[in-house]
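Entry:
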Amino acid sequence: MATYDRDSRDTGGLAADPGDGGGTATAVWAPARPTLTVATDLPSPDEYEVRVYDSKRGRRLVAAAELVIPANKDRPEHRRTFVAKCAALLQNRVSVIIVDLVTTRSFNLYGELLELIGQADGSLGPEPPPLYAVACRGTKQADTWLLETWAQALTLGQPLPMLPMWLADNLAVPLELEATYEETCRVLRIP
């Protein structure tokens, strides 16, 4: 919103000089009635993630580790929201790690992410594993953007994998999921 103030000698101004007792006129606009009003249950903003920023490049977000929770998989709209968020991060050249240990729902959000961008990962097989961890990043080769992924199926009772967390095109650090899990259990005193 903006106002326009002309010279006080111009009697046609939208704003008068405060010293002459005038004021600012404001037109009130009312939008038309909505074309659609429906009751809906929008996905909750539950986020379980770790974000990594590069302080040398203006605190640009460079990596995010997304931890899947049951609410991310319980409804189609929640799955779409999670997948769209991951796709948006990748589109902004943010590397994304997805860790899915949810045993109550058997959807594979990594597979749905690939489907959203018109791709598939043959290693997922005809029945994608419901438990998995994957690292994804966008990279450029010549004039072509590529999506690179490191996907691993998970098995209950087995150690969690180590995945690359890409901080720059030529810099990855190991994300040691098992060591992180064990340390979290120790700190929280979970046996």
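The first strand starts at residue 49 and ends at 54.
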